[in-house]
Protein 1
Amino acid sequence: MLDEEIAATTISVLTTSGTILESKHSNVSETRSKAKTNDDLILESVDRLSRRTGKQTRNDKDELVVDRIVVFLTNDSNLRVKSHPLNLAAQTIQQFVEAAKL
C-alpha cells in the first residue's frame, strides 16, 4: 500500500552516483569506492542533490537559513543522525507519509 501511495507522488529515486532513476523499483549496480562506507555514499548522494536543488543563506542575525526541497527518507537512525551536520532534512518514511498526508 505504501508503494502505491509513493508511486502516485513526485518522489524521485537517487543512485549513489547522483543519477535519478525513472523507476522507483530498480536493480542498478554501481561501482563503489573502497574507501567509503555505504552510509557515506548515500549521504553524499543526498547532499549533492539537496545542494543542487536548494540554497543556503544567512539572515540578519548571521544565522544559517537552509531552503531545501529534498527530504532524506530513511528508517536508519544512524543515517538520520549523520545527516544533521550536512543540514539535510531527514525523516523516517512513516513520519514523511504522515506529514505529507499521503
Protein 2
Amino acid sequence: MAVHGRGRTSFIIALSFFSFFFIGIVLSQQQDAAPPGTVLLDNYAGSSDDDKLTNALADVVSSSSRSFIPAIMLSGRGYTFTKTRQAFSGLKIVGPPAGYFNSELVNGKYNSVKVTLNCGSGNSSWFVGSGAIYDVYISHIGFVSTNGLTQFWHHPLPGTLYACTFETLGFYGFKHVFGNPIAKTAITQINFIGQWTVVPALDVQFSIGGSDNELWTAGYLNIGPSSSVPGEGRYLMQFIDLGKTNVGPIYITANNGWAGILIAGDDTYGVGLSFTGCRFEGMNPANPSNGALVVQTGGKVIYRDIWTAYGMADPLANKHSPPDQAMIMILGGESLWDGLTYDRAASVNQSVPLFYVAAGKVHIRNVFTGAKGGAWAGLPLVRAVAPAVVNLDDTVTK
C-alpha cells in the first residue's frame, strides 16, 4: 500500500507540473493574442512605434485575408508617434478600455496607455482626411504633445467626416485637436462620447462645423488653457456653421486671457444647435476671464441649464472686435437661454451686463445668481441696442 501511495503522489506531482506548464504556455500565447475584431500593434514588425503603425495600417486596410477592417489595439505602455497619416474609412485605433485619460497628473501614470504625439498642424497633423470618410473609431487613449505644434485631426472642406465615434480621449499640450482656425473640420453624425480632458490648450482646440452630431451628450469634456501661454482673446472652441447638433456637459475654463466659445452660422447651416448642462467660466472669482465667455455671431441656438461665471475683468485685453461688453455677447442670430446661473468675478461690479445684444433676437428665461463673487443687490443686467430684439422674463433687467 505504501508503494501504491508513493506512485499516486508521483502521478499527482507530475500532473500538477504538466498543468502549470500548459497553463503557462496558454497565458504566454494569450499575451500575444488580440481580442476578437482587433490586431495588436506590438505584434507588427518595426524598429519604432511609427514603423509598427505603418505596417499595421497597411495590413488592416489592404489585407486580402480579411472580410472586415479590425481595430488596431495598443498595449498598456507608452508610445511615440511623429508621422502624418492619411485617414481612411473604417480606421480604428483603441487603447485598453479602462480608466480616465488625463496626462496632466503624475506624467500620465494614471492612464492605462499614453501616446506621445509630436507632429505638425494642418496638412502635417497626425491624421489628415480628404473627401468623405466613414466609420472611424478612436478610443481610450491619453495623448500628449511636447513640441507645441501638434494637431490631432485635419479634415478641411470640401471633405467631411461621417458616422464616426471618438470615445474617452485625453489631449495634453496640443495646438489643435479637431480642425484649426484656418480650416475647420466638417463633421456629420459624429459622436464624441465618454470622459474627455483637453488641457492645457495652446491654441483653439476645436474648430468644427457640420450637422447631426452628438457631442459629449453621453460623456463629459473638461477643457482649459495653458497657464504659460496667454490667450490674447483666443477661443478654446469655435463652432462655425454647426447645426442640428446637441452639445452635452462641457466644462470650459477660460482664464489667462482666453475666451470660451465662439458660435457662428446662418439660417441655412447654423440652425438647430443646442447646448445643455454646460459650464463657461474663468478659473474662480479671483482668477477670472478677461472678457466674454460666450460670443454668438449668428445661427439659431438653444442654451439650457448653463453655468457662466468669473469674466469681464479686463475686456479690452481680449482684443475682440467689437470689444466685449458682457459675459455673453450676442452679435447676431437667434437664441434662447433658459435656466442660466451667473456668478460674477470678485473685481467685477454687478452693473457689468450679463448679456450684450447688438443684433438678432434673444429670449432669456429663469436666470439665477451665485454669490462667490459677491452678494447681489439687484438682478443681472441685459443691455440691448438696435436693431436687436430681446424677450425677457422677470429674472433679469434692462
Protein 3
Amino acid sequence: MHVTLAGVVLIGFCLLGLTRFQLETNPEHLWVGPSSRAAQDKANYEASFGPFYRVSQLILSTTLQSQSKYISTSGLPAIVTDDNILLLFQMQAKVDALRGEQLVS
C-alpha cells in the first residue's frame, strides 16, 4: 500500500511539469536561441532585405479535366506519371540553373 501511494505521489509530482508545457511549432525556435548570433543575423538580414522564405514542400494536385491515361483509385487522373516526373526534373534543372548577382562591397 505504501509503495503504491508513494508511486502515485511521485507520478503526480512529475505530472506537475505538464502545467508549463508549451508546444513549439516554429523550427527556427527549436534549433536557434532568440539571442544567438544566427537569430540576430537573420533579423538584420530581414530588416535590410525583407523576409526570406524557404520552400520546404511542393503540393501536387490534379483535376478532372487533366488528360491522363492513368487513373488513380479515387477516380481522378494520376499525378505520378512519367510525363509529370519528367516535367518536375525539367523544372528542377531550370531552378538549378538560376544565378544571381553577387554584390561586392
Protein 4
Amino acid sequence: VKELTYWFYSEATSLNMFNKVLVCLWLAVAVQCQPDNLLRTTVSEKAMEKCHRGVRDFTHRCHEYSTKNLDKTKYPKLPANCSTIDWRDANETNNWGNCFAMTTDTKYRYISSNNVPDFYMNLYCPIGLGFGYCSHAEIDKGTCMFEGLICGGDNGPGGLPYGDVWVPADGFYKIPLVGNPTRPDRPFDMYDAYPMGGEKNIGPAAGVAINGISIQGPNDAGDVSIDEAGIQLTCGGHVTPPLGNMASPPQNGTLTKPPGPAGPPMYHFHKSPECLEPFLNASIGVEHGAKPYEHGKLIGWAMDGFKIFSYQDIGGAAPVVDECGGHFGPIDTGEIEYHYHSRQIVPYHLACQGPSLGRCAHTQRGTNFCHPGCGADICVQPGTDETKLRAYLAQWDHRWFDRFTVNDFRLKKEDSKVNILESAITTLLDHLF
C-alpha cells in the first residue's frame, strides 16, 4: 500500500480520471483489509512452518524448498573421487576431501560442492557418545523422530563406534550475481530461492560458504536456536543424524527398506565458521598479519545474491544491521552495497532476505529469529557516504530510499575529523606491520 500510494502521488498525473478513481478504490480496500502479512512463498504455509520450526522426520529437512527437476548439466563438474572420498582418507594433502567449483554467466553464479568441509572434523555426537539425537525441545514436545538411534551405534554410512563423520553429498546452488534491495517483495523468506531465479538441491540452505558448505538457519532440532538447544558445533557446523540404516515409517503397512530417505550424515554450517580464512584474517594477532580494523572478509553468498561477511565493519566497528541481519554500507572493496554479516548471536547470519524494512517477523513461522535491528526500516552503517549509497540504489529505483525511515548514519563534522585521524593511524599501522 505504501509503495502504491507513493507512486500514485508522484507518477499518476498522466492517468485519466476514471483510472485514478479505480486506483483510489483499490487503495481504500487494501487499507480497510489491513493484511498482517502479504508474504507469498513458493512453498505451502504448512511446509514453511515445518521448515522454520526445525521439524525433523524421515525425509530431508525443508525438502519442499529444494528445486524440483534441477538441471545438473548447468553446473561445473567435480572430479569423480569427490563423491567417494572417505573421512578416514581425508587430510591436508587432499584439502581434507573438500571439492568446490564455481562458474558464472551474466546473471548467476553456479556452485557445485560435495559438502565436505576443507578442514579436519572430529568424530561427532550432538549430545554425547551413547546418547541420542533429539534436543530437549523435541523431547518435551513429543516430536522426537529418532528414538532408539544412539550415537556410536551401527547406524550405517557415516556412523562410527565413537561418533559420526561426514559422507560426501552433491550440492548445487544457483545464486544471482547481484542482489536487488529495492525489490517489492522485501523482506522475504530466508529459505526461498525461487523468486530471484535461484536454485538449490539442499532445502534448508539460506546461503553457501566460500568452500561450498551450505549455510543453514539458526535452528536445526526444533523451534529453538542451536545455542538454546545446547548443540555443540565444529567450526560453526555439524553433520545431520546418520539415518542410512533406519527404515521409514510403514507405507501401506510395509516398512520401507533401508537406507532411510534422509540418508547418511551431511556437514553444514549454522553458526559462524570461525576456522575459515576470513575470520582468521582478524583473529590471529596483529604481529602475525591480522587486520582487525578492516572490514570483514567475504565468507559466502545468501540465496538472494547478497554477500555475507565476517564479523567486523569498517575500522573494526560493530555492524549496525537490520532485523534480517544485513545493512547498507561499504564492503571490503570500499564499494557500497547491501550485505549481511556473520555474528555470534541469533540469527548467526540472516533471519530473512533483506532489507527487513521493519517486517522481519512476517517472514517467520512458528518461531522468531529476527535480529533486534537498528530501530528504523533501513539500517545504514554510520559514516557511509550518502551520495554513493544513493548512486548504488539508483541502479533500480532512485526514490526507494526516501520511502522508509533510516537510522542516523550521517557523520557530524567533528566525527568526520576523528574518522580521518583514525583512518590515517590504521593505514600507518598496516604499513608498519
